[in-house]
Amino acid sequence: MKLERVELSPVRYRLRSTLGSARAPLRERQGVRVRVRDEDGRSALGEALPLASAGTEALARTRSALGAAAGALRGASGELDELLDGIEARWPDAPAARCALDSALHELEARRLGLPVAGLLGTDPRTKVAVNALLGSGEFETVLARARDFVARGYETLKLKLGVDPPRADLERVARLRAELGPSIRLRLDPNGAWPVPAAREMLERLAPLEVELVELPLPASVWRQLRRLADDSPVPLAADECLALPEARRALADGDLTPLAVLKPMVLGGLRAAARLAERASAAGVRCFATTTLEGPAGTAAALQLAAAVCDPELACGLAGPEAVEAAFPAWLTPRRGRLRPGAAEGFGEGGAA
Ligand SMILES: [Mg+2]
């Protein structure tokens, strides 16, 4: 492909409600929208929505990297992989910026070849992807009302943020939610690395009778080396998440030496190619992967959906219910129906545009 130019514009999305978690409360998402045009008049979109607490660069770095990339890629030509190799080598410290460029270039290549993006990432893309709804934290009654609404609309997997309150209160919250919702709903928990090792061990033991589907990163990302032992002993399956921003943790995952499950965020991993390659190696080692966004708009969500369709475990719901959480002009095909999305209905990453 030969690129004509790369256009940048700021993007900002408000969240439908403040997302409380063990990290700082999140009220909005800010980033950069990237439009790439080729010499044949095709164009494609990507978005960079950095979230430093999830392991990306800070917004200022995203902006400076993309500013430099827009200049460097004007008139650039080469195979998709060559262009992506160059981007990876030049901006290794800016995964969100790389994600936007990588997504847009994948979409451009897919358009050129008349394929879905998932067809570039995997050999047998799925036609349906189950998605989970996000409950956040907050007052129990509010969380329960949201959970009931999601269940009534067909979601089968709900994700609850933990780690804001002390472990005892978290435990009580999960037990009440399980009692209210009954046994058929899959409950996924995310303490975002809030628990020290002894507290994590105790929590996992106590959560086991509550039939929790999985727990995302229980320990701080900085002590990821202790995850393997914790996961081996845990009665609840553990998923690596924020720690996958670290190359060594990614290598351990790919070698089957970390956790049995993994959350793949293209925004943190530096784009679709990096995420798909990690999924391929980890899956070969027996790790089951699912994809999520970092709460993104239509372009980021559409890109992550293509990744999910291509490489993720069909039994695990993905965190792609963007319209439930983010105020943006999501197209109808990115709005989950009965807790599912159909990647084949995709009409390009940017269809619907940003709010
Ligand atoms: Mg997580």
Describe this structure in words.
The chain has 355 residues and is α/β, with parallel strands linked by helices. It folds into two domains: 3-114, Enolase-like, N-terminal domain (Enolase-like, domain 1, 2-Layer Sandwich); 120-345, Enolase-like C-terminal domain (TIM Barrel). Helix content is 39%, strand content 20%. It has 13 helices and 13 strands. The protein has helices spanning 59-73, 80-90, 95-113, 117-121, 140-152, 167-181, 197-207, 227-233, 247-254, 266-269, 272-284, 298-311, 322-325; strands spanning 3-19, 26-38, 43-48, 129-130, 133-136, 157-161, 186-190, 212-216, 238-240, 261-264, 288-291, 326-327, 340-341. The strands form three sheets. The chain has a seven-stranded parallel sheet with strand order 5-6-7-8-9-10-11. The protein has a four-stranded antiparallel sheet with strand order 3-2-1-12. Helix 6 runs parallel beside helix 7 (197-207) and helix 11 runs parallel beside helix 12 (298-311). The model has no long low-confidence stretch (mean pLDDT 95).
